Amino acid sequence: MDNISQHNQKRWNALAGANALFSRPALELDAKSAQGNIDPEGRLGSIRGKQVLCLASGGGQQSAAFALLGAEVTVLDIAEGQLARDQQVAEHYHVAIKTVQGDMRDLSAIASTSFDIVWHPYSLNFVPDARAVFHEVARVLHVGGIYHMQCANPFTCGLTPKDWNGNSYSLKYPYIEGMLLESEDQPWAYARENYHGEPIPILREYRHTLSSLINGLSDEGFVLQHLSEDLHLFPNGEAEPGTWDHFVAYAPPWFGFWATYCPRT
């Protein structure tokens, strides 16, 4: 385990202990809300019986939704605290969810061509080499399998609401592939006033340029089907400048990629 893995593991175990937003298990789902959580546009079609890998996706949210919709679910995450939430929802809903502790850059614990869907929520930017992840995803997917991945908007990565200068949000970091960016967690991430555990390690993200993302996927045999800026956040341009709601209206923070694995023969 390298320094990157160690940092991510320590940070996400601490966030799980703080009951951070992405560490709160989804315990009130039904089939309709499960569908809305993972696939509101119906891009996946029926997933009953499909083999699904929730990649770097511990926390008991996506795994619960997929399992309730009839998928065979495996979750891989680096933090045992996060995986404990997936075990919690499996017991809560009386469904089977397999958990594997590991790094998204090394899926050697998983056999090749094991999955129909790889579901990868926001975590790619926690490692510096996106191509290493894409290579592993391609290996474990069936031909024709679906890869859904969410990542930072390459152009706004590193910006925060605090970067409001009175007129705009100021870019302050070079647009360089793999550049390390450190920042504080947003106030909505967890309730600081209720957390009295060990200090939570700083948020470390690595910029991935748009060309490295698209070309990296293409080089591994993925065909891009859909790209979104995840504007379901309902941005509010009339919100107070320097707040999260105002920030996302001017600097969309996330991209969502839908791709199909179609390797060249």
TrEMBL record:
Name the SUPFAM superfamilies for this protein: S-adenosyl-L-methionine-dependent methyltransferases
Query: Residues in domain Methyltransferase type?
Result: 53-147
Q: Which Pfam families match?
A: Methyltransf_11 (PF08241)
Secretion signal, residue range per the UniProt entry? none
Q: Which CDD domains match?
A: AdoMet_MTases
Q: Output the superkingdom of the source species.
A: Bacteria
Specify the protein name: Methyltransferase type 11 domain-containing protein
Q: Species name for this entry?
A: Dictyobacter formicarum
